[in-house]
Amino acid sequence: MSFYDAKKKYDGFDFNKFSADITGTDIETILAKETLSETDFLALLSPEAKKHIENIARKANLTAAQHFGKSILLYAPLYVSNFCTNNCAYCGFSTNNNIKRKVLTFEEIEKNCKVVAGYGIRHILLLTGESNTKTPIEYLKKCVEILRNYFESVDIEVYPLDENGYKLLGDCGADGLTVYQETYDEEIYKSLHTNGAKADYAYRLETCERAGRAGYRNLNVGALLGLNDFVSEIFFAGLHAEYLQDTFPSAEIGMSFPRIRPAAGGFRPKTIITDSDIVQAMCAVRLFINRINLTVSTRESRSLRNNLIPLGITKMSAASSTAVGGYAGKGSEGQFKINDTASVEEVKRMIYEKGYQPVLKDWLVF
Amino acid sequence: MQDTFKIAGLELESRIFIGSGKFPNNRLIPEIIKASQAQVMTVAVRRFDFENKDENILNFIPENVFLMPNTSGARNVEEAVRIARIAKAASNTNLIKIEIINDNKYLLPDNYATAKACEILSKEGFSVFPYMNADLYAARDMANAGAAAVMPIGAPIGTNKGLKSKEMVRILIEEINLPVIVDAGLGAPAQACECMEIGCAAVMVNTAISSSANPVLMAEAFKDAVKAGRKAYLAGLGIVSETAKASSPLTGFLTEAYEEAVK
Question: Is residue B148 part of a domain?
């Protein structure tokens, strides 16, 4: 059964009523448990749970330290194209936005790789806008091959592919996939994605499953926070992660918590996601899935990133540019505005000062 | 008391192996080694970083400590074998701890694949230390494949639950003619002591030390516990009695006078 079908059991579920019925005793009982049910996880996302956030955070801190130690893996994103066939209102790359478009040449990619590798970064995330004509699979294969010469692992965040597409990129050296569902609410999703391949909600939702079947080592999910209410989005993202862990036990599953950032198009989020929401979400997910990787990008501010370190995150991007070719030149307009512009050295120092160890290399090229 | 632990061509005075992957700062490693008196430290090959001297974990391991690379991250036999070969080329040691894990939820080792990797790597001249579920059949396969020891889990890694697999580990100690080194799950010095009391050759500790608020002091506590447990094993533990010695024994009437009387 795909996650699309697995998720149906919550069709019509009244999240507001469930949350309203949660009591302080419920939260204390859940915190005493070793393993959490789906509804325990949901209870930890309730307003009542927020009153117990310090206790929840303490348990999340201990759980992460036991399973991952006191270390944070650093990575950087590399955008190679901002051509996109989608019209997502919240994204700077939307076809509706009149921005300068660019696809990096292979020489430009090499130049950018040299700069990022020079920072000491050894794990890279390859990103494109979603255009299979401007950045076809053959182009992506060559990109992965180039990146593999500079980095120990290459994750991809490109337009959703079929299983064979993931195998082809896997054969070139890609080992991980990040894909955000944007919103797990099918109706809202369809209202925001009205044309192109992205309009198919189920196909996007099953993207990680196709990559999992292609043997990818890292599978990362997330919702773009701000498009819908916080509780149900984090809940379904958590269920999605758990489904992937059960279905692909040899893969490492991760989750990110991207919030809508200012971008071309000036989209206003439906819901404002507060720092306290982010903290609650991360801690709840950590207690629900102990072994999950939790990632924080430079979308977030330096001070929040600093405060999140002991709360169970395991991966952080550093010295990021979301502009195409932004490391070796001026680059084009970014997908969103970077919030934390600290250098790799500054991020490393911040992690050490928090009593954690920055890890730059955590895999190896065979 | 002289109690040298001979294994894989090494002569060790210490019976505690230390993991290296979870510390908040590599600079702690020499202090941990000193406090625990460990002479073997395991390091994930995936963390070897020769291009980055400041962060390369190998630069923090004291010279008098034997490095035991592990194949952390390997999901199958082929990956484990390839990582082991990289380890040998990079660190100039024949020691290899095989970790093959195909389940990221509990990080339980795959005994079937591990036994196969043992066979391949032993033939290539490695001294192989397989991380395994405590299972007699798998341990026999690993022993027959030429393993230098077996390293059964006490409890799932990182759980600090202790020697949950005690009966199975005890059977391995009894039946397998190799050192048994409990690896994973030991969360408190008393649990390490328990392993040594029942006859384990050594223990391997990581999370309990690295996640402690005072890792150096905890390392010292584990050292003391392992020594105490080993001494107790060598001295021989008393028999555990299920009941107290009854003050009115059921067979108390069988006295000499009684025997005489009923002749």
Answer: yes
Residue of B23, B86, B107 with shortest CB distance to A69: B23
Q: Residue B255 domain-assigned?
A: no
Provide the CATH number for the domain formed by A38-359 in this structure.
3.20.20.70
Cβ burial, residue B65 (10 Å; 0-12/13-18/19+): middle
The helix/strand/coil state of A253 is: strand
pLDDT tens sequence for chain A (366 residues): 999 999 999 999 999 999 999 999 999 999 999 999 999 999 999 999 999 999 999 999 999 998 898 999 999 999 999 888 787 777 777 877 787 888 899 999 999 999 999 999 999 999 998 888 889 999 999 999 999 999 999 999 999 999 999 999 999 999 999 999 999 999 999 998 888 788 899 999 999 999 999 999 999 999 999 999 999 999 999 999 999 999 999 999 999 999 887 666 677 778 888 999 999 999 999 999 999 999 998 888 888 999 999 999 999 998 888 888 888 876 666 666 777 788 899 999 999 999 999 999 888 877
Residue B244 inside a domain? The answer is no
Please tell me the pTM assigned to this model: 0.90
Number of domains in chain B: 1
Q: Is B124 on the interface with A (CB under 8 A)?
A: no
The catalytic residue positions of B are 97
The alpha-carbon gap from B173 to the nearest alpha carbon of chain A, in Å, equals: 28
Q: For residue B231, give the CATH number of its domain.
A: 3.20.20.70
Instruction: Please report the ipTM that was assigned to this predicted complex.
Output: 0.85
| C-alpha dihedral, A158 to A163 to A168 to A173, nearest 10° | 70
